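FAQ: What does a ligand-bound record look like?

Like this one, built around magnesium ion:
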Amino acid sequence: MSNTIIATEPKLPPAEKPQRPTTGGWLRKYLPETLGIPAVVVIIIAGWAWAVQAFNIRSVILPSPLGVWKSLLAGLAADPASPASYYYHAWVTLSEILGGFFLGSVLGLALALVLSQVRILERIFNPLIVAFQSVPKIAIAPLFIIWFGFGSESKIALVTLIVFFPVLVAGFAGFKSVERERRDVMHSLGASKWQTFTMLVLPGSLPFVFTGLEISLVHAMTATVVAEFLAGQAGIGVLIVQMGQVLDTAGIFSLMVVLGVMGFALVQILAFIRKRLLFWSAAVRGAKA
Amino acid sequence: MENQQHTGSPVATAAKAKPAFIDVRNVGQVFRTQSGGEVVALQDVNLTIGDGEFISVLGPSGCGKSTLMPILAGLASPTSGDVLMGGEPITGPGKDVGVVFQQPALFPWRTVLRNVTLSAEVLGLPKAAARQRAQELLDVVGLGHAGGMYPYELSGGMQQRVGIARALLHDPKLLLMDEPFGALDALTRENMGLELLRIWELSRKTVVFVTHSVSEALFLADRVVVMAARPGRVAEIHEVQVPRPRTLDHMSTPEFGEAAAYLRHLLGAKTGD
Ligand SMILES: Nc1ncnc2c1ncn2[C@@H]1O[C@H](COP(=O)(O)OP(=O)(O)OP(=O)(O)O)[C@@H](O)[C@H]1O
Ligand SMILES: [Mg+2]
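The answer part, i.e. the structure of the complex:
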């Protein structure tokens, strides 16, 4: 974050006087990314491996990096169709995250749209939403398992609920954020409500909507795994609980790696879409440079 | 048609021999404030604007200039009185009006060209023709090269010129401009004034131009409507004698200086009450 802030403003001078157009210049510019990040990762893993050795830590408490790596390979090497395979469980978890994320976003935006258009509903529902927002929705997970069963449905329902609120609040703020003069431009042309919405309100709300989506994506991932901890037939959370019962610490670590890669990929995809769609938004322009 | 000025109006000036296009009759606007009080933003405003005439509206802050604009645009209806356009009462926003605001109010997700064609999309005009006309208008405002750029890539003055092109695209008969150059530096402002006059001389729209600047009002307009505050009202309508086409040199003539001094005196006298 901090390096992006520095990099936004003083962009012009280096572009004016060409700075040694050698690979050395490129390497120097991206030194933190090309060498810094791998170096830190290597140091952490090496330190971890060394500590396990030096203090003779039992692998049940903290497995060696090599042990985690072996577990990961074993999980990935299994036949993708078999329930022992990481692919299968990762796919179940991913589809629950995405299903709930999609449903919650659509419902949240739909209600945000209705509330932003109908004054009476806005006044009735806004206080209720504010009240509900601060309730930790994850607490309802056991109830959802009673209602929707042990399968994916209960997880999707929980994620939907958890995604719903931040997206609703962000979407509502977005739909209400239209600058008065821009609205007057549409109004002075006699634009219909629908035209004003599609040409002005919707695109203008996207920076808000994406902020809501980014917040709730992280919540969605956490909620899915927690719900899988409680009960379930498949999914990474289920697998983690099973491994915990047999003290397979290396296996749990290897699943953390899987979850980490999955989460990172999802966040990056969303960030990529945001950049493509919102290149005009000041917040994105600041972060891009 | 010759003399549309209303009897009873204290500001009856010799009306030009132009057909009346906009007729503002006894318009009043009262706002309720949050605390329950009332603000008389406009009181008994009478004004006749000829077809193709350039009118400047000059007045101290809070005298109701910005209140008048949406009424002329059909965006708001006055508390009392009415406004006729071409003899017909204005009932709502229409395609005969183009509006330029103090802020460019461009749509940042659209390219410059698509900002200019916005009105065509809203009004459902043919696309190809709109694009071509947008390009022509961008050429006119000196931004022919910038059609593919985005608003954030332009300077404030360039954005404002895009706003003017946008307001002209659907060929409105009436162009309303509320302090369109207010956010610009003095030099850009003068150039924009020249540019606007050139556009106006080409298109001969009826223009109502709100400004705080005495010299800008004089430089641009056929007539300057001087307003006074509390209650917002028309204090005087000053006929500008400077010949057209106008150049910046006109601003240094003694006549110009005299007229400016007179208007400043009016403003000074009317704001002090
Ligand atoms: N929506 C409103 N509610 C209450 N009062 C208002 C409202 N809009 C304007 N007014 C009042 O009406 C008066 C005229 O306002 P207006 O914006 O038309 O002034 P103006 O001449 O455009 O001023 P400026 O030169 O500063 O832009 C002011 O006293 C203002 O406080
Ligand atoms: Mg104003």
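Follow-up question: can I read anything off the structure? Yes, for example: Chain A is about 80% helix and 0% strand.
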